[in-house]
Amino acid sequence: MRFFPTIAQHMIFAFVLLAGYVFAGEIPLIAQAMKPFVFISGGSGAIISEDGFIITNNHVVAQGETFGVALSDGRTFSAEVVGRDRQGDLALLRINGAKGLTPYKLGDSDKLQIGQSCYALGNPLSLGADDRRPSVSKGVISALHQFRRSYTDAIVVDAAINPGNSGGPLINDAGELIGINGMTQTRMGMKSNTGVGYAIGINQIKLWLPYLRNAAGGNVFHGRLTGLELEDKITDSGGAQQAGVSVKSVAPNSPAAHAGFKAGDTVISFMDYHIPTVARFNSIQGLYPAGNSLHAEVENVGQKRRLNFPLPALRPWKQAFTLARPESGDKYPKIGAVINNSAADIAGLKAGDFITEIGSMPVSISAIARVGQYFANLSAGDTITLTVQRGISFLDIFFTAE
Length: 402
Hints:
Helices cover 17% and strands 38% of the residues. It has 402 residues and is α+β, with helices and mostly antiparallel strands. It folds into three domains: 30-220, Thrombin, subunit H (Beta Barrel); 228-310, PDZ domain (Pdz3 Domain), CATH 2.30.42.10; 321-400, Roll (Pdz3 Domain).
């Protein structure tokens, strides 16, 4: 009996052929993407220029200045750190004496769409230790513009990201470098893949490259517009609610005041990006090195203004107090000493006070290491809000880091 396929069977057959063509097309794409991949210090890196510049995460190369690196074609070289962005977790290295390198073509992370395909190359769990071939995981762009810890404008992917992927390339269907993978969302302290990985977008990297190239092995710093207190705001626009950001207060003679911000302003855009939340405003600041010229558009009582201002450099705060060594029976971190005439002293903080909350976050003695790290990472201009226990009383202490 002769077989006559139905329309549905024709469609299934066509789909199978098309799928086979698509998947087969990925093989040369990945083969090409492996050429600029770099194994480095248990992690990964990406060659971005013919003369041997490598971009990676700072935490991959945090413990040295010179590293042995290996390419997927078997060649090995020495590379040295050219510049670091410690806060943003970026580092730029340069291979010594390399020739004939194939760099990644840099893409445009502003054009990414949620749901589009992506590929993560790396050395997860040291799988490439034997054959010097990077592993590849495929996924989609899950989210954009995410503010997580020091990653201020992260790309979220569901491609498997594990220890060893750090610093490795994230590419699109055209083989363009759209970011470097650096962090994964973990559960219960386990570092294995959870389906939520974070990458630093290539457009952010492009902003930092000129500064990293000229850092002479040193650090490049972030900035922040201090003296500006913002709040999320919901407004009615034509019968629909719209999220936005308004200026709650501006400290006199602060960088924010000199920039032209005023209490009551609504922030319409920042660097031409729409600003739906305070977190988004802060994330855009984190994209730029200190000293960059920034601009914002604000509106107040129907009048729009364009503000132009430099991004002030962040500097560490002058620590106004110390934490005491924990004693048996302590439930909360305790203030050890307060510097005379410091902002903390003027605000009323006393030696012996127990810190029960930082902001609105409860703390306990078991978290004293994280509390100490929190205070160590503060910058001048940060607002510090503490709830402390003094005897049987609970007091709120507010001051600005100097």
